[in-house]
Amino acid sequence: MLVGSLVPEGYGAALAQVSSTLSELATLHRETERQQRELTRRAEELQRLNRDLEESNRGVRSLHAALDEKAENLQRASDVKSREVAIARIRDALSKAGLGSRTKDRRASAITWSSR
């Protein structure tokens, strides 16, 4: 009867090293999978945030266009007001110079003539 080991003495240490390396490899694999799941989660969150940002940007552009339109309307109203004030000043000056009634009469006749 033989009593002893069939595996040479150096193989035991090598097998222990292989076992340790495989254990470390499995741990690294699990960590890599966890990191991959985290990256996927972050990519999905980034896509959602980009969609939200695009929607907000469309809203801001819409508001900007509305503000531009209002600014144009205000500018036109200001221009009309300035012309009306200038006309009123001219009429006042003409009236003070004694030319106001003739100017009004001519304007009234021009309006009457053009409406015929």
Please give the count of helices: 2
Net shape: rod-shaped
How far apart the termini lie comes to: 140 Å
The overall pLDDT average reads: 86
Secondary structure tally: strands: 0
Helix content: over 70%
Provide an overview of this structure:
- With 116 residues, this protein is mostly helical.
- The chain has one domain.
- It is 90% helix and 0% strand.
- The chain contains two helices and no strands.
- The protein has helices spanning 9-96, 100-115.
- The protein is rod-shaped, with a radius of gyration of 45 Å.
- It starts with 8 loop residues before the first helix and ends with a helix.
- The mean pLDDT is 86.
Keywords:
116 residues, mainly alpha, 2 helices, rod-shaped
Please describe the topology of this protein.
Layout: H1 9-96, H2 100-115
Gist of the model:
By secondary structure, the protein is mostly helical. Helices cover 90% and strands 0% of the residues.
